[in-house]
Every structure is written in C-alpha cells, then in structure tokens.
Write a structure and sequence with these properties.
The complex is a heterodimer of chains A (252) and B (259). Chain A has a single domain, classed as MetI-like (MetI-like fold, Orthogonal Bundle), CATH 1.10.3720. Chain A is 84% helix and 0% strand. Chain A contains nine helices and no strands. Chain A starts with a helix and ends in an 8-residue tail after the last helix. Chain B has 259 residues and is α/β, with parallel strands linked by helices. Chain B has a domain of 148 residues: Rossmann fold. In chain B, α2 packs across α3 and α2 packs parallel to α4.
C-alpha cells in the first residue's frame, strides 16, 4: 500500500526537479516557461480564487460527465440491442464526434449567451458522451448468444437478461470508456471557461492570467487542472474496483 | 413407457442472404424418461438447431416437439443447458453461478436451501472447496463441471448438452465422462447430448442417433445396451470397436449425402 503511494509521489518529485532544473539551466524568463518555484507564490496569492474557481470547474465537469453517462448509456443500449438503430445512429454519432469541439464552443456560447453554467456543462457533456455510448453498445452487441440462451431457456424476460447478464458484462468496457471520458470532460469545461466572456472556473482564471501577463498564474492553473484530473480519474478507478473488480485478472 | 422427449417429423429452414437454407428435414428422435440420447452427425448438419428446438428457443416450421407430454411452444424452465463454451458469469463466484437458474425459475429454491443444493452438486462433480472462486481461477474442465451443476441445479426434466466436452483435452474429457455417470446415478436426468466424438457417444449414450448431412434427417439409431456403470476399459472391447465401426460407416454415408 505504502509502495503504491510513495512510488508515484517520488516520480512526481523527480518530475518537478527536472522541470526546475531545465528552467534554471536555460535561464528562461517566466513568460517563456515558469518554474515550479514560481508556482508556489501564485498559489499563495490567489488560493481563495483557486478554491472557488476549482470548485466551479469541478462541479460543472462532474455534472457534464453524469449527463454523458446517462445519455451515453441510453444511446449505447439502443444501439446495442437493435441492429437497425446501430446502423442508423453510428454514422451520425461518428460525424458528431469528428467535429472539433473547439469550433462548437463559440456557437454554443452565442446560442445560450450568458448561461455560463449551462454552456459549460453542455460542452463537457458533448465531448465526453461518445466513448461511453460506443463502449456500451459494443459491450451489449458482443454478448455471446449462449449467455442469452442459458437465461432464455429458463423463461427469463429481456429485462432479467439485461440486469443479470448484459449490464454487468458491459461494466469493464463502460469503465474503460469512463476513464477516457473523465479527461475529455475537463477539456470541454475548460474550452468553454476560456472562451466565454466573464467566464468562471479555472479556465477563466487562466484567461485572466493571460490578460495580466501573469505567467506563473497560467502555469499554476495548468497544474491545478492536472490535479483535479488526477483526483477524478482515481475516483473512477476506485468505482471500477468496486463494481468491475472481477474483470481484473489476479497476477499468477 | 411414455417418451419424455418426442421429436416428430421436424422440418426447419433458415432464411439467409443466399436464399432459404433447409437445415432439418424429417427429424425423429424419441428419448425415454431417464434415457441418454447422443446425437452425432457431420459438421453443420443442424445439431445445434435441434437443441434450440428442444429448449423451446425456436419453433420448427413443420413437425412437433413434445416434452413430458406437452407440446413445446416457448422456453420452459424445466430444461437445463450446457454448451461447449461454459459461459459462466465472471463477476460471480462459482457457487453463485450455479445458483443462477434458481433466481429465475418460478418456484425455485431460495436462500439457504438454494445454497445447499448448489454446494451438494458442486461436491458431486468434485468441485468442493472451489465454491468461492471466480470462474477465471478454474481450469477449462472445472469450468465445464460448474456449468454442468448450473444446468442441473433446478432439477430439470431434460438436460441439453451441446458438445459440452468438445473443447477439452482427451484426458479431461474422459474424466468428465465418468463424472457424468456418477452424477446420473445420484441425480437422475434425461439427456440429449450433441457430440462429434463417437467414443463419447457410445460411452455416455444409451441411444445414439446419427443425423444425415444437411438438411438433417434421422439416418440411423443405435441402442447401446449396457449393464451397470461402464468403465473406460469398456471402450476397448471388441463389442465397442464394432459399434464404433458401424457409427463410423454411418457418418461416412451422412457425409456423402452432404457432399
């Protein structure tokens, strides 16, 4: 257990040292590249802002992600159970996913001007729901027919088959997709926060750092985002261990 | 004695992209209560379709399937199935896997009684001590044993075995043949076994049905009379050799029709 925590912490410390050393050796000014030692004063000065903005970014990302889970699972179920729906929806979904979300951000910002929270949640949702829908549909459509037959031959209903077999069997794929979706949702939230005027969240803090030429602040925001991302990612990993831990093979 | 499984004049055709594909054409199989019917035939001759018909998972275009004096129209909870792929649920322990049918069958055992029944069966097939293991921790043969317990746990009238030992190595397979006889002695069942292995057919079956090539009809029926539980040595007697030879020739004829 100690090893599991100490090893990554050690790796992080080495990373910070290398970063500091690189800036120091090249004698870069902080507008070119801030060093870790520049970040600490930034956090000290703006810690209240970091807490408030960080919370805003976090909750909007999580709400967007939850929406993506609900809608993604729903769409995935429709495509997983019906071949016709899969054929019909797949090209649409792929096309939708292929549109760079950075181009959608200004459109959404104009469409619902002023509705910061709604806009941000919407973009976080749009960017993260695709992998969830695809993984659920693939998980359901690749269910071996024998699994169905075993239950159907006993007179089980479709609902029973879904709850007893299809759903649990899809969980590993679902969590795999959720890990991808978590980081994507952060990208979505921040795109919106940076672009939308008078925005909130860490993205807006980043933007204000840019306007005020406060370069250490900009780097500090990046690191704060990375930390939030790590926290959310490991929450998903913990949930995966609880609900789909069986899929992990014991090292033999 | 009344037959428990009675398949009469069944015909079935699958619609495919390349036109209709007849798979069964005049299939007759009768299995008495407590009987063990082994079905052999060339590859792709419609043997698996036969199991789906008996399980009530599909209806034949023509002909009738009777189980226990009732016409089979839809799935019934009185059958147990085991396939070549043991399809155990990886997220459940072996014990919970075996108990699965009891959660679905109306009037199935519940709670402690269900658990005891599952433990009893697992012990019967030699899986005592593995109840709490995950399927992924078991060997192929052990998984197949667990799958067999699951097929039997709700005391089905009919056990449908679709090549359950097909993917196992020869020695494990022979072990499982012996287990089948042990289990049958303590937990009597009526079974229909699809297999490619002629030795398996005469070792387990008291009746061997040879199907013709596609579309399959009943081509030949052999009664295997035996006294008591057979041993593996019985497979090396002149009598067994003769039976295998007859079946071998029947399969050749069946393949000839398929070509």
């Amino acid at each position: 257990m100690m090893r599991k925590i100490l090893v990554p912490l050690f790796a992080m410390a080495i990373f910070l040292l290398l970063w500091e050393g690189l800036v120091w050796v090249n004698d870069w000014p902080n507008y070119k590249m801030a060093s870790p030692s520049d970040l600490w004063p930034a956090y000290q000065r703006y810690w209240e802002l970091f807490l408030v903005m960080g919370w805003q970014t976090l909750w909007r990302t999580v709400v967007g992600l939850l929406l993506a889970i609900v809608v993604g699972t729903g769409v995935g179920m429709i495509m997983g159970f019906s071949r016709t729906m899969r054929d019909a929806l797949y090209p649409l979904l792929v096309g939708f996913n292929a549109i760079p979300k950075a181009t959608v951000v200004p459109i959404v910002a104009l469409m619902f001007v002023g509705a910061h929270d709604f806009n941000t949640v919407l973009i976080a949702f749009m960017i993260s729901f695709f992998p969830i829908a695809v993984s659920v549909s693939i998980g359901l459509s690749t269910l071996e027919p024998e699994y169905r037959d075993i239950l159907r031959s006993l007179g089980a209903s479709q609902t029973t088959i879904f709850w007893k077999i299809a759903l649990p069997k899809t969980l590993p794929e679902f969590f795999g997709a959720l890990k991808v979706a978590v980081t994507l949702a952060f990208i979505g939230t921040n795109l919106m926060e940076i672009v939308s005027p008078h925005g909130r969240g860490l993205g807006a803090l980043f933007d204000s750092g840019k306007t005020n030429s406060d370069y250490p602040l900009m780097f500090a925001v990046l690191i704060a985002l990375a930390l939030l991302g790590i926290v959310l990612y490991y929450i998903v990993v913990a949930l995966e261990k609880i609900f789909a831990g069986w899929a992990e093979r014991q090292p033999s | 004695m009344k037959p428990l499984i009675d398949i009469k004049g069944v015909r079935h055709t699958y619609p495919t992209a390349g036109g209709p594909l007849p798979v069964l054409d005049g299939l007759d199989v009768t299995v008495q209560e407590g009987g063990f019917c082994a079905v052999v035939g060339p590859s792709g001759c419609g043997k698996s379709t036969l199991t789906r018909l008996v399980a009530g998972l599909m209806k034949p275009d023509e002909g009738e399937v009777w189980l226990h004096g009732e016409l089979v129209k839809s799935p019934r909870s009185t059958v147990g199935m085991a396939f070549q792929n043991p399809v155990l649920l990886e997220w459940r322990s072996i014990l919970k896997n075996v108990m699965l049918p009891l959660e679905i069958v109306p009037g199935g055992l519940k709670g402690r009684a269900a658990e005891e029944r599952a433990r009893y069966l697992l012990a019967l097939v030699g899986l005592e001590g593995f109840e709490d293991k995950r399927p992924s921790e078991l060997s192929g043969g052990m998984r197949q044993r667990a799958s067999l317990c699951r097929a039997l746990v709700h005391q089905p009238d009919v056990l449908i075995l679709d090549e359950p030992f097909g993917a196992l190595d020869a020695f494990t397979r022979e072990d499982l043949w012996l287990t089948m006889h042990d289990v049958k002695a303590k937990e009597p069942f009526t079974a229909i076994l699809i297999t490619h292995d002629l030795r398996e057919a005469i070792f387990l079956g008291d009746q061997v049905v040879v199907l013709s090539g596609r579309p399959a009809r009943t081509q030949y029926v052999m009664d295997v009379h035996r006294a008591g539980t057979p041993t593996l040595e019985d497979l090396y007697t002149p009598e067994a050799a003769e039976r295998l030879n007859i079946l071998r020739r029947q399969i050749e004829i069946a393949q000839g029709r398929a070509a």
